[in-house]
């Protein structure tokens, strides 16, 4: 058997944007997370992967400042997180679009809240609408779009506010396989282009290996970091070639071997 092209590392770099230190979270009797220490570097996409209920969404929400840890600390650019902040954008599973607003207004809404002039925010929004393949749909309302298109609007909105840290909670979970693949490619292009810090939660091992620079495997609840894997994949290859790449296939297998004993 070939040795998977993946290595374990946990070294902070000078480019570390998000530092998670000693995070524990208890929901009354339920211990969701135990002593999580992680660093998230700029320009990289890190995926949190692990058995259902291991605390992935909880960790993402603690980093977002949407819920408080029981103990420990999160720092973003050296500053302790005490609540939500403009440098962090949280992309929810359902995207929570405003049904009464057009695609353009939805995508530009965060900028509107910041008080940006209309022409400027529309120009930024137009750019991200194009990035997610929705040019021509600017004046449509959410109910006139397919589920996959609505998710793209949500993604464009998150990018438009220009947050440094993007927290994505299973953004592709509700779309069909073809749309999902298209999204994954859009996401990889944006990671490459935008130099932001992406923290991504998914249930799909294949998706994690395809899109991630690093994969953090969490153990069963209480979630702890059990392994960190860096898939070594040539991302300049075509999407189909990547999915046939031996390094890709070996990493998928390695993660499956690590996770399968949690599934019965
Ligand atoms: N508000 C809450 N009150 C009580 N328990 C909660 C609350 N939110 C989450 N939990 C529990 O904490 C644990 C971790 O939940 P969380 O949603 O973070 O896990 P997850 O890994 O994202 O799960 P999944 O993979 O199923 O989406 C679970 O056992 C869940 O039931």
TrEMBL record:
Residues 18-245 form the ABC transporter domain. InterPro entries: AAA+_ATPase, ABC_transporter-like_ATP-bd, ABC_transporter-like_CS, ABC_transporter_ATP-bind, P-loop_NTPase. Signal peptide: none annotated. GO terms for molecular function: ATP binding; ATP hydrolysis activity. The keyword Nucleotide-binding applies. It comes from the Bacteria. Keywords: ATP-binding, Nucleotide-binding, Transport. Gene3D superfamilies: P-loop containing nucleotide triphosphate hydrolases. The keyword Repressor does not apply. PANTHER family: ALIPHATIC SULFONATES IMPORT ATP-BINDING PROTEIN SSUB (PTHR42788:SF13), TAURINE IMPORT ATP-BINDING PROTEIN-RELATED (PTHR42788). Belongs to the ABC transporter superfamily. This is ABC transporter ATP-binding protein. It comes from Microvirga brassicacearum.
